[in-house]
């Protein structure tokens, strides 16, 4: 059976009519065999993308209908069903619909600088109202109320949009209902981006021409706080176009910028490099925060560069930081979503060249290993579990002295620490939607700490003098890049082949108290040996692993404990003698006769050209052969 289309048509019926939007059904889904009337439903319409008769900001609308396929004998019942529905002659009452707009967050960027100038348009009963426009923000704060005068049949409340109405208390005196975050999308049922905090109230009028005034203010109850921002610096910052970076600086603002709410800025910095500048500043912002954490605003961070002697300051990127997780209390009780400073960012222990973490497959159980592939036919070294790390004990005869009292880890230290001492927020630039192409991308990272404090006198989380007065340190580590150095037989060095690399953030290591407690020279313990995976941009899988330990020492500590000699022991000369007696259970080459001509070939690793082999046991049957052969 063909599909059924319900079209919303503009214009007179006939050739001049224009289809605006539609709903589509499969005929099989509309067949009614229950014998009962199908329910009345609100149906969301979809724009006809081919005709494109609606502007981008126009809502497609909904249609309240009862739709079903029934035999022609059910005509009488259909006529009776129409009498059950409200019509133009049904009694109705006048109401005022109050739409309370609080704030929005995470709106998609529509400008090339990664920002947007958003406003909210609400349509009800064919009447559209708009909120005020906020400038250059993806997280606007409105706190406005839009009032609609509507008539609703007194016997049917189904005409209300139940997905938006948050309260059905039809009283003249009312309190603003608690709002809810709603996801935003271009079309019904399709994914989008951004959320809107909104609530609605329906107020009955005493007489039709009564004017219902909106509440004076819908702002929540506020409290005086201070926002502390410790700006460590920016990392991996990208310039705009071909103009190199010169002197980047940061700007912080909360809410709409005005004469009484001016943004805070850091000083410009190009040390150690413009792409990785350090600011080392502590910024305190007096702020009014809501007692209810649900209404907490977002901190807007903007990165600018200083060019042409300060005459040109282009915007490099922006990011917004949710302060809901920074409030330890909400309405006098503990905030369930509160995250302590320095615990919001987790280490990326996977491939840094892949967007998002790679979810490892679960390890197979012992029962599955017995019934599955057990590695039969492979050499013993290849059948060994590659994830197993051999333990080094103090009584091991081959244990080097520098490994005594030193723990060997199966993974990296970041896997055990999990969270970084500083918070890291990605900075974005570009647009996601609009007429231009998709250019939204990450252009750097901000590293620092953000928390809410009660007064200016509270001490900072870090000693700023330690940050502002750099001290010399000695860093000892094994080489963290691995190469396959190969000299060819034609006496020509053809270069080294890059295999993989791993990166260690020295800032996170040094400022993490948990890492500092790993190993104390005065107590005879040492830094653990960690196993780090090597990655390359051309592959998503690991290229091997590297064992190392890292020490960050002051000059005094470095003098007191000289560098450990981890060189290999001197090369000694040995003679390897191999005796090959017999072979058995060898898979025959000829399955029909089960006969094979067998011999054994042996060679030392990296010396394939000096391979030796036994004589040939001709016509060996059932995979059995005798050699009694000696080689050295």
UniProtKB/TrEMBL annotation:
GO biological process per UniProt: plasma membrane organization
Subcellular location: Membrane
Entry keyword annotation includes Oxidoreductase: no
Organism domain of life: Eukaryota
Domain C2: 77-197, 208-337
Gene Ontology cellular component list: membrane
Mode of membrane association: Single-pass membrane protein
UniProt-listed InterPro entries: C2_dom, C2_domain_sf, Ferlin
Keywords: Membrane, Repeat, Transmembrane, Transmembrane helix
Span list, region Disordered: 378-402
CDD domains, per the entry: C2
Protein name (database record): C2 domain-containing protein
